[in-house]
Design goal:
The protein is of the alpha+beta class. The chain has one domain: Roll (Diaminopimelate Epimerase, Chain A, domain 1). 22% of the residues lie in helices and 34% in strands. Strands 1, 2, 3, 4, 5, 6 and 7 form a seven-stranded mixed beta sheet that branches. A hairpin with a 5-residue loop joins strand 3 and strand 4. The radius of gyration is 14 Å and the shape is globular. The chain starts with a strand and ends with a strand.
């Protein structure tokens, strides 16, 4: 079963804007805690400037944003929740796409991290 982080208690607000290294506007779409021993915490962000049609921000430019969001959003959320997910999946999308649904027109970037000792350690998919 999926549980939104907001329903679980930690105070990460949907729609809140975050500063990232690339300087692009980024806001939280949702935080999703999944149940189970190996379940991830998913942080889904809206980042309209990654739209490929606009010649926007590339994955190489946004890669540091993903790590930054893990460190500045996921780690405090994990500490506040008092639970450690097996992984943190951070995603950027140029438009709001419902979790688990495909949208061939959307540009989306994803990275996985393992939260360990107060750090986000990058993990290849």
């Amino acid at each position: 079963m999926l549980l939104a982080a907001l329903a679980a208690g930690p105070a990460t607000a949907e729609g809140k804007s975050y500063d990232v290294p690339s300087g692009q506007p980024v806001s939280l779409l949702e935080a999703i805690w999944e149940d189970g021993a190996a379940a991830p915490l998913r942080l889904r962000f809206l980042a309209p400037r990654i739209a490929q049609a606009d010649g926007g921000i590339t994955f190489a430019e946004a890669e540091s944003d993903l790590a930054h969001l893990c460190k500045t959003v996921a780690l405090p959320l994990i500490a506040e929740a008092g639970r450690t997910p097996a992984r943190v999946i951070v995603s950027l999308s140029d438009r709001a796409v419902p979790h688990g649904q495909a949208d061939p027109e959307a540009t989306q970037f994803f990275e996985a991290f393992r939260p360990e000792d107060g750090r986000c350690i990058w993990e290849a998919f």
